[in-house]
Amino acid sequence: MLKAYHLSSQTLNILRAFSSGGFADLNRLDLWDLTFVSENPSNRMYQNIFQNTQKCIQFMRAVGVDISNPIFKTTQLYTAHECLLLPYEESLTRKDSITQEWYGCSGHLLWIGERTRQLNGSHIEFIKGINNPIGVKISENFNTNEILEMIKILNPDNELGRLMLITRMGAKNLKEKLPELIHIVKNNSLNVAWCCDPMHGNTFSQSVGDSKIKTRSFEDIVEEIIVYFEIHKSCGTYPGGIHLELTGMNVTECLGGNVQDIKEDDLIKNYKSTCDPRLNGIQALEIALLLADKLSNESL
């Protein structure tokens, strides 16, 4: 746990240095190292985003907006992770000296998983006592009465921004189960934020030689994201974001992709995860560009 804490701190310090050192500067989009994009099907989407952003910046300059303002040059980073190891979380819990309220200082937002959200369990007991924004993973196997009771336990004052429901239902189940969950929340006038986890509900084992390897399909992940946005649009609710498991390394852990079409036999070439399969950097960028393109065209 100490090693995890120190490595997390180092990673965040590097990211903060990048964000304030020019990597987030919209005036320097032409310096972004995305040269590989020019040779793949995502090029059109990236070029559209790049060109539209450049036009917006040019327009703002023309009307006298100060483009040197930090809002155009830096970005804020917020952290979240699963509240799984309670000794770790308890060690990093602090009381605010002014408000006298408790906060989990291991992240800005903490969530509990589908397997640890028992109403009388220790994870619910811990997370209800901190004043961070909190989240809960919800699969397709939810029980209506249990969901209602859980929401009231975690957000008794029905506070806006306090509780996020992170759906992880799988592409095949989302069309049926997400509208049902949304209607439960709306019919009871409950305030929640919505997030989509398209990774965990789409995990399966793939036979490779004599062994089985846990993997996910790029196509299933994309389908769940698109359906998630479409359902919220039709229900009149707001999709708050997506939760991806990814790495910048060129791993071969998730099947498919338009640029790097990873096949079954490719999985063993660079499978590094000791837990869950992750999208590699190119696959993750593809999803980001696809989603940005659809949102900008108001098709979602």
Would you kindly provide a written description of the structure presented here, covering whatever features stand out?
The structure is a single chain. The protein is α/β, with parallel strands linked by helices. It contains 8 helices and 11 strands. The mean pLDDT is 91. The chain is globular and about 55 Å long. The protein has helices spanning 2-20, 43-62, 86-91, 122-127, 144-154, 171-187, 218-235, 281-296, and strands spanning 80-82, 93-95, 102-104, 109-112, 134-138, 163-167, 193-196, 203-208, 211-217, 239-242, 254-255. The protein has 2 domains: 1-77, no CATH class; 133-296, TIM Barrel.
What distinguishing features does this structure have?
single chain; 300 residues; alpha/beta; TIM Barrel; 2 domains; six-stranded parallel beta sheet; three-stranded mixed beta sheet; 8 helices; 11 strands; 38% helix; 15% strand; globular
